[in-house]
User: Fold this.
Amino acid sequence: MFCYRGCHAKNGWTCSRRMVFTGAAFWKTKEQVQASVIGCYASLLGSPNGSRSLAETFFLWGELRADMLASTTFTVNEELDIMNVNILPTNSITNWRSVYQAINYCNTVIDFAPQVLGKDQTFTQDALKQEHC
Amino acid sequence: MCSLYINNTKNKSFLPQTATGRLSTEPAVNRAYDGDIDVFNVTTKTNLVYTPRFKNDKHSLISFLSLNTYDNTSTSHEVLTSNTASSIIQDPSSPSRTQNSESKLQSNQYQTRSIGLLLSGQYSYLDKYIFNAGIRGDGNSRFGADHRYGLFPSVSTRWRISGEKFMKSFKSVDDLSLRLSYGQSGNAPTKDYSYFSIYNALITGGPASSIGTPFSYLGQGGIYPSNPELVDLRWETITGQNLGIDLIMFSRRLTLTVDFYKNRTKDLFYTGLQISSFTGFNSIDLNVGTLDNQGFEVGLNTIPYKTKTWQVDVNFNISSNENIIREISPLYPSSKGDVTTNGQYATFLKVNNPFGAFYGYKFKGVYKDMASTIAADAKGNPIIGPDNQPVFMKFNYPSIGYTFQPGDAMYEDINHDGNINYQDVVYLGNSNPKFTGGFGAAVSYKTQWKLTAFFNYRFDYDVINATKMNTTNMYGFDNQSTAVLRRWRKEGDVTDIPRALYRSGYNFLGSDRFVEDASFLRFRTLTLRYTAAKKISDRLKVKNLSGYITVENLFTWSKYTGQNPEVSVSGSDPFRVATDESFTPPSKTFTIGLSVSF
Assistant:
C-alpha cells in the first residue's frame, strides 16, 4: 500500500488526510492484471494525461544537452534553454513527473497483482511471474 | 412532494465527405456518431409543521421537520468513428476508422445520492425573547464511508430589548432588538466517486499531436490508476456567526440596522491542487484549510423632514468585507506572479492577512542618459567596481543580468545593490476596498411629485490599470495611446515614458506606474416621478396615471484615469487582484416612462 501524507503535525494540520491507492473492487481477474501491466509499458511510450511522453523526455534529456540536436524554426524556447545550458526548474522539460508516474503504475501492479492469485483460479504463479518480469 | 425527471437524449450525426470536400483520410471525413444519454432524477421533499396553540398566549412555538432526498443517475453510451467507405454508409457500426484523437467508444455511468433531514423549532415568549434552533443532518454519496454524514447545528436568538420594563422610560424608542446567530452548513464535492481509485482505459493520449499516441503496448490497450483514492475527503463546513442590532426610533422616523458577521469555511475544498511529482500523480482535490469571510454592514434610513405636503427621506449604507486564510495546507501555493516578467505583479498568500495586497517595483521615471544608469549606493555615491570602473544598473543579475540602457524604465533600487531583482519588490496596493456603500435621498410633494437620487461609492481601492500598461508598453504591433508620443528618444530626454523596444527590454514590469487608486463616488440614478392626482385621473377615466424620467450613471467622481473605476475582481483564488482591462463601462441611460392603468 502506498501512503501519502500531505501534512505537518506541527502546524495543527490533522494528519489523517491520506491518500491510499487500493482497488477494492478491482484486482479480481488475470485480465485486469494484464491490462495494468500493459498500462505500465504504455506509460513508457505516452502519458495518459497529455504531458510530454517519457520516450520523448528521455530523448530530450540525452540528446539536447549533448549537442546532438540542431535548432530549427520549430524549436521552442524551453528546448533552446536546455541547448544553451540554461536549465531552470521552471522549464517543463526538467519535470520528472512522468517518470514517477510510470514508477507508480509499476508499484501498483507489484502491490496488488499477487492478491489476484487467490481470486482468479486461472491465474497461476507462473503467469504472475511472467507479468512481473 | 416528489419530483421525477427523466431526460433521454439520442443523437445520431454524420458528416459526409461531399459536404466538406476534405481529403478522404482526414478524421473529419465521413464521420459518424451515435450517442445515447439517459438521466433519471428523483427528488423528494417531505415537510411536517407543528404549531401548537398554548392556553397561555404568552408562549408560541413553531416546529418544523423536513426530509429531502435526491437521486441522480446518468448513463451514456457513445461511439464516434471516421472514414466510413462512402458518404451513404452513415452508421458508426459499419467498418470505419477508430484510431484518431476524436474517435471514441465509451460508456459512462454515474449515480449521486444525497439525503438531508432538518429539524428546527422557533419559540417565542411575549414576542420579546425569540429563540430558534435547528439541526440538519446531511448525507452524500460523494464521500467515503467514514465521512459520508455530517451534522450541522444552528441557533439564533432575538431579544427585543424595547419590550423590557426598564425601557418604558425611553418613549422615543419604537423597537430595539439584539440578534445573535450561529449556524453551520456543509458543502459536498462536485465530483462523484473520488473516494474510489479509478482505473482508466485510454484509447488515445500522449503528446498533443493531431493523431495522438494510443495508450497501448504491442497492440493491446493499457489501463492505469487515474486518481488517488480520497477516502478522507470531508464536508466543507461553513460556520456563520452574526451579531445584529435593530433600532427604530421617533415613530419610525429613524431606522438603523447594524450587522457584524464572520463566516468561517473549514476544510475548504480545493480542486486540482498540484502535488509533488514523486507521488506519480499530478494533482488531487483536497480539504486545504480554513478561510474567514468577515465584515460589517450598517444601514440607516431617516425621515428628517415631514409635513402634510412635504417629505424628505435620507438613506445611507456602508459595508466592509475581507477574506482571510487562517490555516492552509503546505501543498497550497504561497505566491503568484513572476516579478522578472513584464506585466506581472506578485501576490502572496499569508496566513492571517486579508487577500488583495499586491507587490511590485517602484517606478522612478526613465534613465535620461548613460550617466544616470550608473548604480549608486545608499549615500548616493556611484558604486565603483574592482577595476575602478563605475558599475551600471543591472536587472536580475546573474540569471538575466540585463544592463539598463538610457531610455529604459528606472525602478527604485530599494537595497542599493545596483541590481533590480525580487529584493526590490515592495507593497504597492490592495484591491480589497476599505468601504463600499451607497446613499440616497428622496423628496416627495403631496404624493404627486417624487424626486429620488442614489449614489454609490467605494473607498480606498487600488487597481492595476492593465489598459494603461497595454497601450504604453510599445512591445508589439498593438495600437498605443497618444502618451507614447512623449517617449524617450535621445540622450537627455526627460520623460515618464520609456523608449520603444520591440519584444525586448523590461520597461513594463509590475510597478506602481500602473497602479491607481480607483476610489469613486457615482451618481447612480436620479428619478423624477409624477403621479396624477385623483381628480385628474378620474376626469380621464383611468385608475392610475404616472410619468417619470430616470437618468442612470449621471456622473462619476474619481481620480482614476481609466474609463471606469468600478473594476470587479474576477476569479476566486486568493491571488486575485483587480485588473482593469477596460471592458465596456456602464452606459449613461435616460429613460422616459408613462404608465396608465385602467
The helical segments of chain B are 17-20, 466-472, 534-539.
